[in-house]
Write a structure and sequence with these properties.
The protein is mostly beta strands. It has four domains: 33-55 and 552-688, Jelly Rolls, CATH 2.60.120; 60-72 and 407-528 and 537-546, Sandwich (Jelly Rolls); 92-260, Jelly Rolls (Sandwich), CATH 2.60.120; 268-402, no CATH class. 8% of the residues lie in helices and 57% in strands. Helix 4 (104-113) packs antiparallel against helix 5 (117-124). The radius of gyration is 55 Å and the shape is rod-shaped.
Amino acid sequence: MIRIISILSFITILFSGCEKIFEKPRWDTDIKAPLIKTTLGVDDILKDTSFKKDGDTIKLISRQKIYDLNLDSLVKLEIVPFEKNVKLSTLKLDSQTIVRPITLGELAREMRKNGDPFGQFILDNHGQTMPFIPAMTNLTAGPLDVDINQFFEYAELITGTMVIKIENQLPLNIARVQFELKNKTIPGPPLTNETYTGLNSGTSQTNTVNLAGKTIEGDLVVNVQDMDINGGFNVPIDTSDAIIITMTVKNVTVSAATAVFPAQDVVNEKAETPLIGMGEVELNLAKIAKGRVKAIAYSTAEDTVYFTYKISSGTKGLDTFTVRTKIPPALPGQTISKDFSADFDGYDLDLTGKLRDKVNTFYSELTARIEYTGKKVNLTLDDSIYVVVTLENAEPSYVRGYLGRDTIDLGSGSIDIDIFKKIESGTLNFETVNIALVVENGLGIPGEYFINNLTATNTRTGAIEQINGIPPGFITAATDNPYTPAITIVNLNPADAVRLLNILPDKITYNVKLAYGNPPTPAPDYSDDDFAYIGTSLNPYLDIELPLSLKANQLALSDTVDFVSDNFKTSVNSGTFTIHIDNGFPLSGDLKLYFLDQGNVIIDSVVTNGAILEAPVNAQNRVTSKRPSKASFFVSEAKMQNMLRARKVIFKVSFTTNPNTNPPNSYVKIYSDYDIDFKLVGDFNYTIE
């Protein structure tokens, strides 16, 4: 036992001191691996092009806009700024009545002052009844003050009348009285000089005086120039008895006054404002989408002026466009200003003027008003309101009238055609083709088109085809109420269209003119019914429509798919690539594969001639089932490593129509459910470590 244990210990020590290194196992095997599986259908072939399905058939469509004529191109709403420097047009004063009694005591004191002893006699006998008083002649009195400052301090009258009523409240009859009314401090002739006769006690007489052109101050005087009084018996003497002079001033307008003014319009200006830069355009209505009325007003008036600007022909529902502001009083000899603005959005602007007999013209009113304050202010007709009103950034949403006429020479323009861009080579003949000038007219104006020529160019091959001599024609106008755009379609001759498109153009050049509008009537007719809405246009398009019914000869189509080979690129030795194809198109063809690295640079390729067999068709030339085919190619280890660096693979198919169609050489129709399946399988010799 001891010997056995010793031997085992020796072996353990021996092996713990020596470590044996073994190689990993390594062997080669064959593995079949699918690398790409994809289906290429009509939608994929036509990717990035315009196409339309008509039932289960395919029509390629290309629509290119040539021009855009819209409301902004036709009409700009600009006005001459409404600018008025208006002096106060009228200043009115309220009717006023001034009562001035001339008492017996005043007359007696005047008589005494003039040396007549009878004056003192009257004063001494106040309250007594005199048995007899003799007649008195050539009596004078004055100046007797008349204060009307509570009404005005100063006034230069344009118009006015004064009704003077004189009433005799003395106990004696007045045979004759002559008096004058004049300003106290302003030199000049009297305002009036009146004579009354036969004015018995207790009676009155009235006279009217024209004050037009006179100047009146607030301090007046009355001078009794001559008065004759009849005598009498048993005459009671009361020095408070009087001759009552009542003066009523009315119908007064002034050119200047310091007065208590009643509420009144001091400016009332009406104007018709034209649009500018309209050319032949004659509008009777514009609906405003957006815009702003801005104004600045200046006033020299020493009173608060209430300013109103109204565009009478601008309405929104039942509302008329109106802006108001208040301008504070100006200091004497100075001017004060005020800015204001208001949105004009959504208003209908009638452009036929005040009497509806114009075009491009709107009617507005400017008023300035003062209100009654009970305070005396100084105003003159030399005071003025100066205002500037502008309509800024006005954009119409609708216009109606005559929208003018013009010919737009579009010249030589070109449009890119992308429906053939996946076709790299070969020929293609279409059974039918339609090329049309389609004019979608959203404007209520007629027009005319002129197509001088159309030229198709294939810049890859250099092929060119041209059509000349296309007859001109008319463009129908849109209609209103309800709004309905009009579409005018001008189809080219089908044979010419086929000739243009059979060269598979990528560019079509045109030379086109458009004319719109009719000449206005010699005498403008304001019921013209041209119209345009915002957002609507007159748009000419070039439409290309071709059903996929065709003949092909080496017609090259291509598509690109991703290729991920990271799992293989260090372990695959060599192998065979097999492409399995299930073709659902009634076309045969060749297949080329191009392998691209991450920089999209071709690093290898494979060519298989005649690998794609056309699908079988029935009596109606409709594919009944997909036709399988395959192509294989051996790849050496060196080539394999190169190809496995690829990140993308381009499948390029060259299709050709089978000449043995029924009937022979007939066109083949492509339907929307046609497709072709590709599966790339690698049969690799793979090293496993």
